[in-house]
Specification:
- It is built from nine helices and twelve strands.
- It has 294 residues and is α/β, with parallel strands linked by helices.
- Helices cover 35% and strands 21% of the residues.
- Helix 6 runs antiparallel to helix 7 and helix 7 packs across helix 9.
- The protein is globular.
- The structure holds zinc ion.
């Protein structure tokens, strides 16, 4: 018989791996879900990652292959698209350059899709030469709208945030947005803080709040698997502002890194599902900003 603590440890690990949602443990490995109120917009989830695909009268626009460490997810993704349409995949759009979202695109490339990403994503990927990641065919710097058949997908670079290559994707007609890692839904940003740009991130969230959309598909399932809304964006903005303000004071008292990481808490957020796991990453990043200048 296993000691009780060990059993709890394993359960907690599974909980974290699945994105901190108790319901996630009951979910199938993958699923495709049509977004309510549309007849052409789908969320493809595999494990703890999600992508959006849009079916048009002239082909499919897919986003993020989500194949890092799970290359089988990509062939499953294509199979799931084939279940709802005979149309070919014309485009694959990268949300940003992080491998957990964009690795594994080869099956889409082989099927003839064109890959689109922000300019900096291509520059970085060209340097890294990851064997599992397809280089973008086309890049953009500020904005581009992909018109295909009866719909349009607007790609906007809102500046630095979670990464330096993030594209905010918006379907103006359907009023649906797809945003990866810089807007979490009902969970706090954690490990991904490491290479983020906290001050500029706040500015890009304000731009998202000013845009016209109603539902947001996140790159990791939201709390309870739900989609996001503007309140979720406001909540993340407030969280970043609160964390930043707290650490700024401590940093200017010379308490970064160790003292802040050991002692500082953000009790207002203690009931968020991943608070304990996320807090050290958040504090370290803000110590980097206010205690170091980076
Ligand atoms: Zn990321």
């Amino acid at each position: 018989m296993l000691p009780k603590l060990y059993v709890i440890g394993v359960a907690a690990l599974a909980f974290v791996a699945l994105g901190g949602s108790a319901q996630a443990q009951q979910r199938p490995r993958f699923e495709s879900t049509k977004v309510e109120g549309t007849d052409n917009v789908y969320v493809f989830r595999y494990g703890n990652r999600q992508a959006m695909f849009v079916v048009t009268t002239q082909g499919v626009i897919a986003t993020d292959p989500i194949g890092y460490g799970q290359l089988q997810a990509v062939t499953t993704y294509l199979d799931e698209i084939k279940k709802v349409t005979n149309q070919p995949v014309k485009y694959v759009i990268y949300s940003h350059h992080h491998f957990d979202h964009i690795a594994g695109g080869k099956p889409f490339k082989d099927a003839g899709a064109r890959f689109v990403a922000h300019k900096r994503a291509r520059e970085r990927l060209a340097l890294l030469k990851d064997p599992h990641t397809v280089l973008p065919d086309e890049t953009l710097e500020k904005q581009r709208t992909i018109k295909l058949g009866n719909t349009a997908l607007e790609l906007t670079y809102l500046g630095l945030n979670h990464s330096d290559s993030t594209l905010f994707m918006r379907l103006p007609k359907e009023k649906i947005a797809f945003a990866v890692d810089f807007i979490s839904v009902g969970t706090l940003p954690g490990r991904g803080m490491i290479d983020s740009y906290p001050l500029e991130w706040e500015a890009s969230l304000k731009k998202v709040l000013a845009m016209d959309w109603e539902k947001l598909i996140p790159g990791h399932p939201g709390a309870g698997g739900r989609l996001g809304n503007k309140q979720d964006v406001q909540d993340i903005l407030t969280f970043l502002q609160d964390a930043s303000a707290e650490v700024k004071v401590a940093a200017r008292e010379g308490k970064c890194w160790d003292q802040v990481e050991k002692e500082l808490k953000l009790p207002k957020y203690a009931n968020w599902p991943n608070y304990e796991q996320a807090l050290p990453f958040v504090l370290r990043r803000y110590c980097g900003l206010w205690g170091r200048g980076t």
